[in-house]
Amino acid sequence: MRSPALRHVLTHLVTPLLMCLGMGLAYMGAFVTPEPNHLPVAVVGTGPETKVFAQTVKDKAGDQLDVRTVASRTAAVDLLKSRDITGAYVLSAKTPELVVATAASDMGATAVEKVFTPVAGRQGVPLKVTDVAPPVSDDPTGQGLFFLLIALSIGSYASVAALGAAGAGLPLRIRALLAVGVSAVVSVIGAALAGPVFHLAHHDLASVWAMSWLYSAGILFIGVGLHTFLKRWTTLAMMVLFVMLNFTSSGGLFRPELQNGFFGTLHAFWNGAGFVEGIRSLLYFDRDGLSGNVGTLVAWLVIGLLATVVAGAVERARARRAVQEEPVSEPEPVTEMAEAEEELEESVAV
């Protein structure tokens, strides 16, 4: 290509075009056609009639439902609050009841209601729906936590571009300290949004802040570490890790039982899922499963710290080699500034 300027522009268009493709594949693959995929439900009752009914529901649903029987409504409620099932159908000739926990997943509760409403209709009786874990009135769909995740993620991964580009001349230890400070600020903003601003969290706001810090710090340290190796491609890598794969597998809109196996598998260990499910556990389910969710966030932070340590060792080795080699002319300040500005501009908020 004869024109260096045109080649320069085309090279920088690769990143946004790959973002376009990746976002389309990830978001549309995860959200466009949600349908039950081994959605766990229970039928409440004892005796052969209950087992026959449960098997009939399973036979008709196929792989869409995983149906079990439980002996009592109390046992079904316990399973709902531990999020082992999405809904429980209480057999009754006159007053059949569907028990759900919408704080775990509003979409999941809607899905099981669609499954069992026709069943009650064939009996000629209305279906009573009972919600044993409703979200707060300020967040009636329970999806506010997903949008909190988005705010924290954007504040974190966009800051990586600033630390990597504008702070490229700083020692890595200074960039690491800045990452700690930025994650503290991002988490305070998150806690403010969740608490006094939008009232998603009516209690345990300090714990919400702590989990927000763990989540944000993990992203920032991973980004700081990756920037040493990827440079201007760091933004694309962060978008893949913490937007394309993260938002779609978090369970904030659709839990894994309403998605295909790929996103359901990621939900088991990705940091966004750890954050969303951890906050749900904290706010609505008496901390059930919280330790595992916190463990997920800690594991991602440890990965980030290790990446930063490795990056520091590489940068020190590069500096020693540069001292041993013949001195080379310094790049023009204008060029350095232009490269930094280009990298910052490629930090795209979603």
In short:
By secondary structure, the protein is α/β, with parallel strands linked by helices. Helix content is 65%, strand content 7%.
Low-confidence stretches: none
- Beta strand count: 5
Radius of gyration: 25 Å
Query: What structural class do you assign from the helix and strand content?
Result: alpha/beta
Provide mean pLDDT, rounded: 89
Percent of residues in helices? 55-70%
What global shape is seen?
elongated
Distance between the termini: 33 Å
Write the H/E string, N to C. Answer: HEHEHEEHEHHHHHHHHH
- Count, helices: 13
Strand content: 5-15%
Quaternary structure of the protein: single chain
* Largest sheet strand order: 2-1-3-4-5
What does the largest sheet look like? Answer: 5 strands, mixed
Question: What keyword list fits this structure?
Answer:
350 residues; alpha/beta; 13 helices; 65% helix; elongated
Summarize the structure in words.
The protein is of the alpha/beta class and 350 residues long. It is 65% helix and 7% strand. It contains 13 helices and 5 strands. It has helices spanning 4-31, 48-61, 73-81, 106-123, 144-165, 172-197, 205-230, 234-244, 246-249, 261-267, 271-284, 290-324, 333-345, and strands spanning 39-44, 65-70, 87-90, 97-100, 128-131. A 5-stranded mixed beta sheet has the order 2-1-3-4-5, with helices on both faces. α7 (205-230) packs parallel to α12. It is elongated, with a radius of gyration of 25 Å. The model has no long low-confidence stretch (mean pLDDT 89).
